[in-house]
Amino acid sequence: MADREDEDLNEVIDDIVDKDDQQSGDEAEDQRQQQASRPQAQQKLLPGVKNIIAVASGKGGVGKSTIAVNLAAGLARNGASVGLLDTDIYGPSVPTMFGVHERPNITTEKKLIPIEKYGVRLLSMGLLVDTDQATVWRGPMVTSAVKQFMQDAEWGNLDYMVLDLPPGTGDIQLTIVQNVPLSGAVIVSTPQNVALDDARKGVAMFRKVDVPVLGIVENMAYFTPPELPDKKYYIFGKHGARNQAKKMDVPFLGEIPIEQSIRETSDEGTPIVLQDVHSKTAQAFIELCNRVAQQVAKRTNKQQDADDIDINFVE
Ligand SMILES: Nc1ncnc2c1ncn2[C@@H]1O[C@H](COP(=O)(O)OP(=O)(O)O)[C@@H](O)[C@H]1O
Ligand SMILES: [Mg+2]
User: Fold this and answer.
1) 65 alpha carbon to ligand 1 midpoint, in Å?
2) What's the helix, strand, coil split of the chain in %, to 5?
3) Ligand 2 centroid vs 298 CA: distance in angstroms?
4) Which of 73, 62, 71 is nearest to 100 (CA)?
5) Measuring CA to CA, which residue among 210, 178, 205, 186 is closest to residue 41?
6) What whole-number distance in Å separates Cα of residue 150 and Cα of residue 167?
7) Top-level class of domain 3-21+42-299
8) Could you tell me if the CB of 66 is within 6 A of ligand 1?
9) Residue with the nearest Cα to atom 5 of ligand 1?
10) Distance separating alpha carbons of residues 264 and 258, to the nearest angstrom
11) Cβ < 5 A residues, ion ligand 2
């Protein structure tokens, strides 16, 4: 990248990092109270984006980024225009899982240009800042940076923007979901009780701020040894998230098995949903993409759009 552009990018990054450093607690509280004006924000923040979907979990390490990455790649594979915004500044995984490590370019108006890979436009804190230093970021700084990623980037027109949220249901997550015009949330949980407790908190958080919960996906639902393709071992318990979804009256979006190839493709930056589409695992992700698209369409009354993007992955 030319020196000049590099300088400009650094300026943009400084702006993202510094902007809210001096924000007072009062201002943060004001931000929280702006929730009432969410519909207005929705029109202004990302006018070209039809649906913003948050992928969330109460707990870290349950596969939220894995789901977000494969959801974005799967929807794009089917022809939708898709953005992927990694807001997990404490542990951004999207660059690794998409195999993207270059810094984004900027326009002459100093807008970030999302990096495009696998037909997905993406931005991640991990592409811009040294995330070792981000551990001291306070909530308002994160929210402000997320907003800037939306406002000051050339996303263009998108059918979906997938947001990979930081794990948990604390102040930071709450502030993001209040300030971003979300169409709905996908909650990721593994089947065991400790994860389900946190998934419940996740559902409660979205309900509190009136963001529709599109459903719960059960990750690491079972293990099938390659040499015993008809066996399913329920390592973390059977149907935990499925039952929880029923109890909370939210849609169940499907089961993703625990599988070595999912971990490997994550580390290699080649999302499994784009690999052997006939494999059971890729099919599980394709089904998940379908269900999420259906739930989004249901909630936005755009059944026509949903029909247009009906997933049909035939090679
Ligand atoms: N279904 C799965 N099968 C195998 N490994 C998985 C699966 N889901 C996630 N992983 C692996 O577990 C780790 C944590 O997943 P990640 O998506 O980063 O979780 P989170 O974003 O919730 O912290 C990663 O190394 C990922 O590759
Ligand atoms: Mg993650």
Assistant:
1) 7
2) 50, 15, 35
3) 27
4) 73
5) 178
6) 20
7) alpha beta
8) yes
9) 263
10) 12
11) 64-65, 93
* Chain segment 181-225, per-residue pLDDT in tens: 899 999 999 999 888 888 999 999 999 999 999 999 999 999 999
- The closest of 65, 54, 116 to 262, measured between CA atoms, is 65
Distance from the alpha carbon of residue 284 to the mean position of ligand 1, in angstroms: 15
Euclidean distance between CA atoms 198 and 294, whole angstroms: 25
For residue 186 the two structure tokens come to: 């996908």
Q: Please state, in angstroms and rounded to a whole number, the distance separating the CA atoms of residues 231 and 222.
A: 9
Q: How far apart are CA 1 and CA 179, in angstroms?
A: 33
pLDDT value at residue 174: 86
Does pTM surpass 0.70?
A: yes
3 state SS of 161: strand
Residue type at 221 in one-letter notation: A
Q: What are the tens digits of pLDDT across the range 17-69?
A: 765 544 444 554 555 454 444 444 445 678 899 999 999 998 888 999 999 99
User: CB within 8 A of 23, min separation 6: which ones?
Assistant: 140, 141, 144
